[in-house]
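Appendix B. Raw example, untouched.
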Amino acid sequence: MSDRGRGTLETTDGGRSSARARLAGANVWHGRDMARSTRWVRTLTPDVMAALDAALAHAEARGLPWHAITPADFPLPGLEPFFDDIREELENGSGMMKLRGLPVSRYGEASLRRLYFGLASHLGTPVFQNRHGELMRDIRDEGGDLGKRYGQIETGDGNGPFLSSYARTLSNGRLRFHTDRTDVVGLLCVRQARAGGVSKICSSPAVHNAFLERRPDLLEVLFQDFPRSRLGEESERPEAVYNLPIFGVRDGKFTSHFSLTYIEAAQLVPGVPRLSAAQREAIDMLMALAEELAFEMVLEPGDIQFLNSHVTYHGRTAFEDDRETGRDRLLYRLWLAMPNSRALPEGHEVLWGSVAAGARRGGIAQVPELSSRSSIGG
């Protein structure tokens, strides 16, 4: 069904009934188990690296900038099974994949960007990450007045401005569990921090099932609309507000889109309905369950992490850089629309643009006067 996730009737502890179905499959996992698993880890073999280097040489011989590279410009004959395996694990498996062993120190910055973008273009279609037309975002501590550059709300409460999600990403602070506005987010670790910067990953279908078992009344709340602000996305102002549930199911496949910052930003807009006590309780429980069910990992230089946003939450601990010793955290981020993506529930077009399976969707809509005078990114 495509209404907003109705499943079969289940009875939970205490005799309370829920019209929601328990989710099953490889993307329902507990962090303690996934931390010991290797099903989601692949090592880039010498044969794969040789193919990537040959494709890079082909693209560089043509003088192509990284953002102009298409799969045809980065030929990888014989690697179709390699990419099919990654796509299958992301969509129908655990929802995550880590590729190990890219020798990042071997390449200059321009070559590394070409290689990463060329590889990813065989996996999915890169989409824009901000309204300025960026396709690849450097994730690092930019410091300074991030809110003025990337979005903030002056609250007047004495605690300083409320920073947009985008501004928070480019600090060295902790990032709460969230999803990105894309089918799959890719992160290539170029350098790691002196301390901290630990990745935290959680199965959102496992969170759904925990609600079903413990608080089916609150589970139902998460299938209802929550107001969210587009601050830091299409808008520099918080007043652009839309409604979207946190959970949804269509054709038996789950999706969750959640970032507490966008919900909090909407609550600062006059006239936006206040969250109910049940909505606040559901959010608090979601955050607590994500911590309970997650596992932690450190991305090492040369690791590439791919996460399916529909079935995983991710976060990050705070970190400390040491630029003098070259231990300053730098990740290259890509957002990918996937050719084998799931259909999304009706009504989710407000965020995704299209809810059709395999559609080019997600990313941030462009503001012409901004994107026309900006670089592609990086």
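End of appendix B.
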